[in-house]
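Dear support,

We are seeing what looks like truncated structure output for some complexes. This example has two components. We would appreciate it if you could run it in full and send us the complete token output so we can diff it against ours.
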Amino acid sequence: MNDDAFLSITDLSVGYGATRVLEHLRLTIGRGEFVALLGASGCGKTTLLRAIAGFVAPSAGAIAVAGRDVTRLPPDRRGMALVFQSYALWPHMSVAKNIGYGLKLKGLPRTAIDRRVGEIEALLGLSGLGARKPGALSGGQRQRVALGRALAVDPQILLLDEPLSNLDARIRLKVRHEIRALQQRLGITAVHVTHDREEAMAMADRVVVMEAGRIAQAGTPEEIYNRPASAFVAAFMGAENMLALNGTVAGDKIHIAAGPHHGAAAVPRDGRVLASGALEARFRAEAVQLETLDAPRATEGLALSGHVEAVSYLGGAWRHSVRIGQTPVFADAEHALAPRTAVRLTIPAEKLFLFDTPSPSGAAAPATDTHPTATRASRPDRVREPVIS
Amino acid sequence: MPLPLLGLLLVLPALAVIVLLFVVPLAASVVGAFVVADGFGLGNFVKTFALYTPDIVFTVLIVSLSTALIGAFAIAIGGYLTLGENPRAVAILRWLYRWPMFIPFIVVGQVLRTFLARNGLMNNVLIGAGLITPLDATSFLDWRGIVIAFVWKQTPFVALLVAGAMASVDRGTLEAARNLGASRARILIEILVPQVATTLMVSLVLSFVTMMSVLSVPLMINAQSPTMITADIAFRINAYGDYGVANALGLVSLAISACAAIVYLRHSVRERA
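Here is the complete output from our reference environment:
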């Protein structure tokens, strides 16, 4: 997909004062590709976008567009247009003036500007609003004016800095499909910054998950979602449930040793690079088959036993908080099970993500001698801090 | 006691202060402008315009020119503080530009008197630097001296308000313009200044009214004719005890100030439309 490396970022480092925000970052983006930079606040995704746009000077590394080095060029000479999180519309100018300003700066004649502004307004469904000031528009309309202002100058690369975060939830779902459709229609290369994993997956060809100034994983939405490269990526992509296991890697199989609250299981290695010993297992609440302990076992996989502590309806499924030994995990089921019910959780092999437990086993690792299956769960409402190895 | 009465009682002290210290003297001055020897009439105004029309025109021109220059300098200072890319220069300017605000008008007049005189510091420096010969040295203690004093004293005040307003402008709006290729001058004029236009207008109107009422600067720098209305008012009272003409002159300067306020109001109404 990105063989031609239209936008290439090589060994990019950016720091503010003594703090390093980006560290030797490498990324290539193909022509016409839609890439989402996904990460929690402070991971450096906006800094990366601003460095690409030319608003942040890198301390090392290079940025090239179609083989041309743009690292030291001012923002307007890079063939890129940035859509700001706050939209940054000029409140004293009408919609038409906002959209046409870039063309005016290029010295185009007035008739050409008017024609292009008309095209952009029609493209974005803003026809008839040209004379309004931004203050008289709704959030969604402002967002489209900001997009129109960026597209009017016909940039090679469109940079989007959390452009949907100021919209309310329902409009956001609509606008993200609109932006994606527009990007495909225009065939423009786009880099989109977001902290919303669903938004990143819905919009992008490729998702780049960032963690503490580095790329944790880059791949298609399916790859990121189904084959997370690290515990951090797994947690960020929703696999918040965490268990500590012991396993032995043998050939194409990983044999998980039985513990007081789970049975033994063998899962395919599937190309994973793992060492035998303490493993960190992660899985999503919706990946679990939840049934009462006395029901016949329907699915293959790792079976855990515990009891229901609480249950709530999320719409579509009931979310159960289940205690496995000392560890609470979340598990979804179509039917609600009453609190204190003894249950079995079965996690199919392909939905069980396994990683080496980071060493040294200080505060981060559970004490395995007293409770072999003692686990540490992370709270789903909070992004887990990256484990430092 | 019924609640409305209690409320009235509570605002009464403030109201009394305004009425006694502001409304009554203003009314007395306005009425006084129309008092002539045999009752009421326009005699004071006839005399005012006959004697002081050049001074009224002079005052309007001086204060208008000063206001325009103050606006230009304040935009330049605020613009550099907001858009300047050399952090050290910005820090120095930020520290420096406010000082004249804390110096009273009379001290400004005194300082500029010694600085701008024919054998003052400015000419001595220029002669010493070989830029002009002693024969070319002229005194700036005329209309130019008043304008320099006003601009020097009032620019920091306007710059302070304008720079504050500029600092609160969404920086994204500046970066968006830069992203599309606008130069810093264009960003200043087309993006930044329009967003702080209201603050700029308000502070310029306030400056205009302040300059209309300064007595010390024209007395110290420009003790010749034509001079400013304030000097004429002082002269009418001190030399002749002529409160009638003094009040008429005061009313004229009030009318000029009101014109500035009306210009501002019309502008802000159009902005909102």
